[in-house]
Amino acid sequence: MIRYTFAVYAVQAGEVTLERLWIRMDNQQDKLQQQREARRKRRQRNQILAYATVLVLIALVAVGIVIGVKYLTQWQEQKRQEEQRQQESMQAQLEQQLGSEEESIAAPPDEPEVTPEPIPELTPEEKLYEVINAMIEAMPLEDKVAGLFFVTPESITDVNAAVRAGDGTREALTRYAVGGIVYDKKNIQNAEQFQEMLGNTELYSKYPLFLGIEEEGGSVSPLASAGLIDKQPSAADIAAGGDAEAAYQAGSGLGAGLASYGINVDFAPVADLANVDKSVMSARAYGSDATPVAAYVNNMVSGMQEQGVTACVKHFPCGGGTAADTHDGLAVSERSAEEVRSQELAVYRSCIDSGIQMIMVGHTAVPSLTGDNTPASLSGIIVTELLRNELGYGGVIITDAMNMKAISEYYGSGQAAVLALKAGCDMVLMPEDFQEAYAAVLEAVQDGTISEERINDALRRIYRIKCADRLSQDE
Q: 271, 364 in Cβ contact below 8 A?
């Protein structure tokens, strides 16, 4: 089309021939092609130059980074070496200065050197208390409070007669970490059953546990009555024989039998004097004269505790000084303060001197000592002023069973438990309603009615007994 247009134009103009026109047109096309090729080559050259420039710049930057890092590393190393030289110089100056001061204050050559006194090594007893304190410190308050209760298995499992320890016991001891469980004839079926129940109960407890029973001999012998251990004579029968050694043999026999089932606390022997007409303790006491009674009591305690069973003498201060029975209601002793101190307390002084570890305070009221009819177990005058302070007793003080009518007819379970602990007792035995008693004591500690240190103090005495085997191992 282009050629045709130029040809027409050339013919009309009459300037050139058709052939020459075609040649000119071809030449123009060649030039245009050459120009396009030249432009393409320039673009390629420019691109190559641009790429080369970028690569050169990248290389320069990389070299700069390498040089900069090397310089920074050298600078840091130089700085570190300089600081080290400064520190060494300062240390040398300080040592030189201290050396000069030591020379200036050095003691005369003839003055003897002072040897530091060696730190005394802890005794086994002190080591034991360190362990006990650490254990108590780690306890939550709820467990501390529960640890002050010595209860029946029924009171924590809500069954009528516990004869086995299964999931119910496990859950109960997880919820209430009680300090002790006491068993009676309704919990005993046969030897295998009783031993298994106690073994599982001990296994389920988070802390060392008292497993107790009231096995005195004579008519108060639940295990012997079930045929599980040999029956021992009553205290009155032993005393009638006139041989204090018989009390030791009875205690040893009881201790061996109880220990074989896992029992570690026996609420025996009776340390009361049956010294009033128709004394409620006539058949259960060793007599009315303090001196021989003390010998019988201490012998039975020795025989029992040599078998690994903790004895608990009872019923402080004068459970035999009345004809009334605290199981049935209020019991008041008319014994004078002078009589009690010179006779009944003489037995307990002897027991304390012999190292008795647990004393039960009875519920008998002694107005000559307290000025009113407050049960002894709830009286601070009896528990703290008389037993703890005057007689200097440092062991565990436990109440008599709090479900007795001498308490339950006049006090609520919570009120009685709080009063007993405030009076100075360390453990509360068998409250009529354990959960009510536990909740009341916990609240009393939380609101400051009873201090937590008071609770800790009681637990130290309790665990001193529970952990006694550790002390014997250390020795």
A: no
Name the strand (E) or helix (H) holding 86.
helix 18-105
Q: For residue 117, is pLDDT > 80?
A: no
Residues 396-420 have a mean pLDDT of 98
Map tokens 């096995």 to a residue. Answer: 215
Whether 233 and 176 map to the same domain: the answer is yes
DSSP state for residue 217 in the 8-state scheme: B
* Residue 438 token pair: 């536990």
Render pLDDT for 287-317 as a digit per residue (tens, 0 to 9). Answer: 999 999 999 999 999 999 999 999 999 999 9
HSE value, Cβ hemisphere, 13 Å, CA-based, for 81: 6
What's the CATH number where 453 sits? 3.20.20.300
Residue pLDDT, tens place only, 33-46: 776 776 777 777 76
Which two structure tokens, joined as six digits, stand for 72? 């920074």
Residue 233 near residue 218 (C-beta atoms within 8 A): yes
Q: SS3 of 29, please?
A: helix
Distance CA 209, CA 199 (A): 11
- Secondary structure (3-state) at 190: coil
Token digits of residue 8: 């027409």
CA 468 – CA 266 distance, rounded (Å): 16
Q: Which of 105, 139, 165 is the last residue of a domain?
A: 105
Shared-domain flag, residues 90 and 231: no
CA distances to 92, 95, 97, 400 from 101, rounded to whole Å, are 14, 10, 6, 72
Confidence band of 452 (pLDDT split at 50, 70, 90): very high
pTM: 0.75
Choose among 151, 206, 158: nearest CA to 182: 151
| Shared domain check, 395 and 315 | yes
Query: Looking at 105, 135, 164, which one is the last position of a domain?
Result: 105
Nearest CA to 238 among 292, 311, 291, 279? Answer: 292
The domain containing residue 63 runs over which residues? Answer: 2-105
